Amino acid sequence: MEIADIMGEVVGKEDPKELITSKGKETKRLAILVEDLDNYRIGCVLFGDMVDQILPYLDDGRVEPLIVVLQFFRPSRWNEKTSVQSHFDISKLRINPDLEEVRDFRDRRLAAIPSNLVRISQVNTNNSHSGADELKRGDVTVNTIEEALNSTQEGPLWIAGTIVAINSGKDDWFYKSCRKCPKKVETPIGNRYECGKCGHTHGSASLRFKVEVMAYDGTGSITLLLWDRETVQLCGRQAEQIKDEEELYAEGYPAALESLLERKLLFKVNVKSSNIKLYDQVYTVMKVCEDDTIFEMHLPNKTFSTVTDTGCSNSVDLSAAMVDINNLSDSQYSVDVVEDSVTSLKCKTPAKTATMVLKQQIPINIENEEELGFSTNKLTRNRGKRQKMQLHDSNE
Questions:
Q1: Are 156 and 288 part of one and the same domain?
Q2: Does residue 208 contact residue 182 with C-beta atoms inside 8 Å?
Q3: Basic residues: which segments have biased composition (predicted)?
């Protein structure tokens, strides 16, 4: 039997699960994600007493590295991915052992990632494969944003685009949720929150991301809703971690979310009936892929075709009515356009349309971020065909 020894930092965890073996014995299962000094990650599955052994160390707000040494673990390979799992009583788990190699490993990890960052993220291993894995299979078609907006078929599809705006303010980039599932929790009962979905109660609610952004690809722009998993993947931080930061961007959202801007990404979005009928203009993101090589490989031929040689585009499809920025007297529209934002649209990346904020809000009812049926919409749009917002140079 092939066995492996691994040392690494725990950077991800899923919720533990109770199982019954083929012999009728009750046991527990917990999947964690371990990363080495080369930032290589491998999934590790723990069974039985090892789950109880490590659970006290998996705090949501942990800022110190959790170093584990896994001995005599059994490798397995599925769907072209390698993982390891504990094997009966043979495998051993050592947590933060006082060894010179572990101390050196810990110091090097701290040098690479400051200790004020949350170290362990919640992961969902029920997701059979990541966005990158799905795209690498080669049977995925990536659409332009224009094609996605005009799609009349419900279901998931992939698009490529650059995040050019964050349509979130001071208090609407997050929501309070159950600590065991993504279900939104409202007013506490007494001094505890009770989840209406899984029944879990806790003295405090968890904070999860709910960030609305705009993506652009040269054929048009689209409003996307990033839930917690995808936002954590992109910004590398937890919502609870940055909630209390005093530094806010001009539009009120945390400065930490600025890292989302100008990111060229592949998005798997869910096209719902409400999107097709035009009364819901926000598309829910199911997966993201941030791999530059995969992005270039899957870039649709039409994408960025309207961008000039200097990287500039003359128009941005806001799916609103035609507005001439040189004439802002139209009383039907109230658009706050800062001069440097217009300038940024003329340079290489149209990344600062974030200052164009249209504030009509439609309340969001968050049942479950995985159910993909709930969204917000801050963009005032007319029903009917999508039109373009033309940006004119100031010297025209």
A1: yes
A2: yes
A3: 380-389
Domain limits at 325?
Answer: 131-390
Q: How far apart are CA 227 and CA 180, in angstroms?
A: 16
Structure confidence at residue 361 as a pLDDT band (50, 70, 90): very low
Q: In 3-state terms, what secondary structure has residue 178?
A: coil
Is the pLDDT confidence value at 288 over 90?
A: yes
Q: How many domains does the chain have?
A: 2
Secondary structure (3-state) at 111: helix
Strands 121-122 and 4-13: parallel
pLDDT confidence of residue 292: 87
CB 198 within 8 A of CB 368: no
Which segment of 40-49, 240-249, 332-341, 361-370 scores lowest on mean pLDDT?
Answer: 332-341
Of the candidates 69, 19, 66, the one whose C-alpha atom is nearest the C-alpha of residue 47 is 19
Q: Give dist(CA 139, CA 148) in Å, integer.
A: 18
Same domain, 112 and 140: no
Of 64, 3, 70, 4, the closest CA to residue 34 belongs to 70
Widest CA span of the chain, in angstroms?
79
**Cα dihedral across residues 299, 284, 219, 140: positive or negative:** positive
* C-alpha torsion sign, points 307, 311, 313, 317: positive
Tell me which residue of 131, 232, 245, 227 sits closest to 175, measured CA to CA: 227
Residue 111 region, left (φ>0) first, then alpha (ψ -120 to 50), else beta?
Answer: alpha
**Quick check: 334 and 322 in contact, CB under 8 A?**
no
**What do you get for the CA distance between the two ends of the chain, in Å?**
74
Say whether both 258 and 366 belong to one domain: yes
Residue 103: pLDDT over 80:
yes
Is residue 330's pLDDT more than 90?
no
- Residue 304 carries which side chain, given as an amino acid letter? F
Angle among Cα 241, 170, 193 to the nearest 5 degrees reads 60
Output the average pLDDT for the chain. Answer: 74
pTM listed for this prediction? 0.52
